[in-house]
Please model this.
Amino acid sequence: MSKAKSIQNLLKINQHKKILLGLSRINKALDHIKWGEKTKSKILTCNGTSGKFSIIFLIKKILIQNNNTFAVTVSPHIKSISERMEINSKYIGIPQLKKILNKIYKIPVRLTEFEMICAAFAEYIKNKKIQYTLAEFGLLGRRDAIRALFPAPDIHIVTPILFDHLHWLKNQKRNLKTLKEIVYEKTSFLKAKRIYVSKQNSHSLKFIKYYLKDRKCFYYGKDFWLKKKNGKYFYNDKKHSFVINSNLLGDFMYENACLSIKVAIDEGIPLSIIKKSLRKVKMPGRMMKIKSGKLRRGLPKSALVYADGAHNSLSSKCVCNALLDQYKNKNLYAIISMISSKDPSSFLKPFKSFKKIFFVNMKQDNVYSKETLKVISKKLNIPSAISKNYYEAIKTVPDKKNAIFLITGSFYYLQEVI
Model:
């Protein structure tokens, strides 16, 4: 039995077989390991619909450049579960993770897999001498396990909020009533000393301001903002204005950078450090340019391959717009697989300007079949086909020299192919 597989088995022992929300189980588990927020570091948490990992990653880059010590937990992972726990740029070792999980599963509380990982992270960083702890929420927020670990962080970031995880809500239609419920679940409980709010649509922003009216908040558009001029992106707040020199791709990535810069400035990090940290960014699974390896097999140098874990309408719109804007004279293709808890119709709409999209089946159980996705794309008048896998899909593209390929639809699909 491999180490990775033995850890996966540990996560399935003594746990609920499905995702469950609520704080009672994780709070009991944290009591057993005598957590009590046993970290003297500054806490930064982050939730929203899209952009959580990207912002945490960019802030981490700035902390590294500033020689700060830190711990990070994010979800999901791309290549290895060890990516979910990191201290000072080093992922937790598999043997150490297995040892911690052995301790966690002996706790007489039936935890979900995510709760076990959160409890393991608490055990991992407990009493560690670090300056910052960065934590990405899992599902919604109000009843998410990360809230139990860090109920009153120093900093909280609210990323763009729109429709996702509708099956977890009382209202499951894509309307304002549902959006208000989503915003409530993601913001009403926040007790951070400082809250930073990303660029939002007008409806989401109205609800966010309602639920955060008594909190100390910094809003995109008012307290900091991004300006694009002649293809360059400029960070702005009431005291600063400068160009962001970076290899980031797409307006939304620079909007994420804009918020990250504001947080760093307020933390007293020098501008020279901030600017230097963002020049070259390679972010796993987010607008990730594949430069070598098996995914480029059989492709000419002029053909480009990107991988992004976009899985909702907000993220697919951002990714598609970025590629369409960057490669106006290229033919864009997407290879897509999706889990069944997502809304494929709203996700696929931004792909109408692509030359063609291919649907494949990933190895997960809870997925839309490629045949089902093709039917949905046909209703949307999007040119599509089904394929055995990524490699078979790109074989059918005639003019590969002028092609841009995007692998997307789910982080779980990226786990299989990257």
